[in-house]
Write a structure and sequence with these properties.
With 398 residues, the chain is α/β, with parallel strands linked by helices. The protein contains 12 helices and 15 strands. The chain has a 7-stranded mixed β-sheet with strand order 2-8-7-6-5-3-4, with helices on both faces. Strands 11-12-15-14 form a 4-stranded antiparallel β-sheet. The protein has a two-stranded parallel sheet with strand order 1-13. Helix 5 links the parallel strand 3 and strand 4. Helix 3 packs parallel to helix 9 and helix 10 runs parallel beside helix 12. The longest helix has 28 residues. The termini are far apart. It binds D-malate. The site of D-malate has 7 residues, from loops.
Length: 398
Amino acid sequence: MLQINENYLNLKQNYLFSEVAQRTNKYINEHPDKPIIRLGIGDVTKPLTKKTIEALHDAADHMSKTETFKGYGPEQGYDFLRNAVVDYYKKNNVDIEMKEVFISDGAKSDTGNITDLFGPDNIVLIPDPVYPVYMDTNIMNGRNIRFMDANKENGFTPMPYDGLEADIIYICSPNNPTGAAYTREQLKVWVDFALEHNSLILFDAAYECFIEDDTPHSIFEIEGAKKCAIEFCSLSKTAGFTGTRCGYTIVPLELVFKTSNGSEMSLNSMWTRRQTTKFNGVPYVIQYAAAATLSEEGIKECKENIAYYKENARIIASVFEKKGITYFGGKNSPYIWFECPNGMESWDFFDYMLNEIQVVGTPGAGFGANGNNFFRLTAFGSRENTIEAVNRIDKLLS
Ligand code: MLT
């Protein structure tokens, strides 16, 4: 008789953003005359840049001719894109080797898939609140999860403490959903902790392109990190690839861990084995466009879009400044994370915003218990919608 993975019984019924979409669609069906503004899921609204589009067209042409047509590609990604990622890291003074770069269809998939590499008895440390994929994928695997409290008091950047036990540590910086980012000194403390305890940091850098100060873009800017960290990143937010799908995962060659019989295994080799078995790579057309996107001109164009979203973030933050409402993020991040007014719970506040002003955000509770009284808005909307949403919030909270 089939035995199902009963760990799924421990998941919430819906993935957070499916729940938000369901509730929003129900409202739209019941109130077709009320225009909705969506600042919930962090989905971009600006189209792909010129350089990316030109490359997509060129790559489509390559597929039309026998001489340049591509079938199966290397599972880890084409060298031209892996090298483009190596060059991108050089801009932040980080040296990585092409062999350490694995092209993916986005950070979401790989932050979940990476769990294939680890034994069942690890203690997994996950910040609360954080991007729900880390928790959900570890619940699916029936792993031993411990949470570390991120809250107002620690500025949503929790740190190691005496007696902390953790084999796998998830860090997302700049953080989704709070927008808080770890400083260089703080990340050094985490790296030292991981080295001392022989643990592994899974570092999600999906929002690095929003950093505007000395905050590290990569965990590999920190000395020793190549011995204790894997990094995930994505072109979703950097270059508007949410629908185009391309990301990359850096698995350093130095990540070698002992097995129970005393031999050694390289996580880079294991990930290669895993990917070659379970993944056939990102489409050539997309990888070709991604390489063009990561060129100097491509990144320059992306930065214009990022500046646009950052101005949206400033506009959103201004209403909370005006109202004296505590908020985080909006600076090195496209997210504004604010305290729900009058102690409201976040799903109640979600319904309140939806019903009263038809603005959709993301309830903090969806990212963990510590988000219960917080709410997230994204800066990825159009300028017009962002201004309109802010005007509606201004009136609602007056
Ligand atoms: C979010 O809104 O948290 C993100 O867009 C989700 C994602 O990147 O998968």
